[in-house]
Amino acid sequence: MNKGRVAAWAASLAVATMTSLSSCDHKELCFDHNAHAPRYQLHVSANYQQEWEVGKDGSTHWIDFPTWLESYGMQYDDLRPLIPAGLRMHDFPKEGQSDMINMAAMGETVGLRPGEHQLLFYNNDTEYIVFDEMYSYASAKATTRTRTRSTYLGNPFNSQTGAKENTVNMPDMLYGNYNKSYTSERTSEPTLMEVTMHPLVFKYLVRYEFSKGLEYVKLTRGALSGMAASVYLNSGYTSKEAATLLYECTMEPWGVQAIITSFGVPDYPNGFYSPTRAPHSNALNLEVRLKNGIIKNFNFDVTEQINNQPQGGVIVVSGIEISDEDGKQGSSGFDVGVEGWGEFEDVIIPLK
């Protein structure tokens, strides 16, 4: 092969190699361009307000109580709710059907259709919460399951209407927030939306303090009337309808204790008291089954305590007595067992 042909062959090879490399570079640039191409994406970054009680002024009143451990046998922080297992964004677009998007509890990047949206955020790991009227951003609310108890006779202090409230199960923990108006636009990077998830369910630490006869008690359970039946997800405002919460209690050396979860009082905005609320009554019930099989009921008007603590707090009633006559009636040293106490079981109505 002469020198001219060798030079021509080398030149052709160099051109081919450069073309190949240029082609590879071009493909890489295309991939990079694809990754940063404008799209309709939203990055939700969630944090959680882990409060179990909120006072009338929006503050946590009981956190400053100096002797929590000595008075209640637990730390204040022991009642704080946990971060949930997951988060849901319920999307109500101006055009098209609504959509539910589940994501990690702390949020993630999600796609949205272009245009205007109304967004509801709430945790998706609830067991007893029932989401109702979810076809509309304005009507969407959370309520809970019906629960019945044959021996509960209602609020004896309610002279307003005399109507008997629905009895319900306690709600489990619910956080929520909303965005009334969000416009999804095409951007090269996901739009950041920081969402603070506020508590929509609160806790009441209830203490039934006995002064006599606790040793005769075998089983206990309670009820709290006049509490909100539901809460609107677009505002945190509770419904005007009231319901009675049914719950189990635990025995303590000083009496009986319960930790109640609730949406709070009816017709109440999340954080500030409403002066337009209708008069209402709150009754605290304690039902005990003695070891000899006798059932006794105690009722307490706790309206003032609830008025002062519309969204969680501490409720205390004291001076409860079981007389020796009741405690020893028909007793021959025989302790009635739990079996056969069918009438002491609540009935939870299943969802349809």
Layout of secondary structure:
Elements: H1 3-35, E1 41-48, H2 68-72, E2 86-93, E3 99-104, E4 109-111, E5 115-123, E6 129-132, E7 141-144, E8 147-148, E9 166-169, E10 175-184, E11 191-199, E12 202-212, E13 217-228, E14 231-232, E15 242-248, E16 250-252, E17 255-262, E18 283-290, E19 295-301, H3 303-308, E20 313-321, H4 324-328, E21 347-348
Parallel strand pairs: 1-11, 9-15, 12-20
Antiparallel strand pairs: 1-4, 2-3, 2-5, 5-10, 6-7, 7-14, 8-21, 10-11, 12-17, 13-15, 13-18, 16-17, 18-19
What is the strand content?
A: 35-45%
User: Which regions have little confidence, pLDDT < 50, spanning 5+ residues?
Assistant: 17-35, 272-276, 338-342
Structural class comes to mainly beta
Radius of gyration, Cα only, in angstroms? 30 Å
**Order of H and E elements:** HEHEEEEEEEEEEEEEEEEEEHEHE
Shape: elongated
Number of DSSP-assigned strands: 21
> What is the typical, i.e. mean, pLDDT?
85
- The rounded distance between the terminal residues' Cα atoms is 90 Å
